[in-house]
Amino acid sequence: MAGSDRPMNLHVDHALGRDVTVSTGDRPLFTYTYRPDTVRLESPKPYLHPIRTLAGDVVSLFRPHDHVWHKGIAWSLPHVGEHNFWGGPTYVHGSFYVQLDNNGSAVHREMTDLSAAAGRADIGHRLDWISQDGEAVIDEHRALTATVLDGTSWVLTFQTAMTNVSGATLDIGSPTTKGRDNAGYGGLFWRGPRSFTGGTVQSPAGTGADDLRGSRADWFAFRGRHDETGRASTIVMVDDAGNPHHPPQWFTRSEEFACLCPAPFFSEELALDAGQTVTFRYAVLVASGDHGDDGTTALADQARSALARTRTVSAVGSVAA
Fold first, then answer.
1. Domain assignment present for 80
2. Does residue 65 fall inside a structural domain?
3. 124-162, pLDDT tens digit by residue?
């Protein structure tokens, strides 16, 4: 793989009605489960897991016992009006977390694209966000694009256009906007392997761990090591400059468990009016090895360039150049 200027060929395997796996050669990069068998309490939604490096190491965790609603990488929102599309209990100021009858679901409607060509794989997906009571809340169209960059790294771009179909304004926020300090999670959320606990978090400002939570940056990275092999891997997430509240505050953990989340509603709600559409774009770079501070910064530049090359998804399911 290293030293070749030709893009790595990717192919897509579709388990009809269940999931899509994107691979290079005989090596799977990720599986996107679009119709999960998740229980209502965990706010069913599509997710990516397992996610692997080109070396074959798994860099995602599924349904950990401490937070069973964490599933690899998922687009998860804990406070959408009165609805919880994150999973589990809802933060209620003064009562901490309370299990309410508000766990919504992001439900598969149709695949709009499923293709692989010219060294990239594309998945287009329409979803209906439905409240626990069965009411329509959001009409979403998302697009996922995977590209192998070189012998070390591949990148996933994730784009979503969300239209409010509830008939009323939806205030999208986080536990922090509801009163819990420094707990502004919500958005594109990555949960890393158990062995990554205690790993290195990096932003443009430098390296650290939980102390970087809540800081603003256009990218964050996590550098961790795997059990059994002892190898290292790196995850880099990049926030697009056109996203609301860019650069975002980041929700990250290392000391308790590994996670990254560019949280657009960390400390400021977004009021989405009835009929209004909001769009978000991200790049997630998956690299074998620990590339050090300077090398990780270079990986972030690669991810940013990949995001710039990817077309923008629209609210109606097409893409704009």
1. yes
2. yes
3. 999 999 999 999 999 999 999 999 999 999 999 999 999
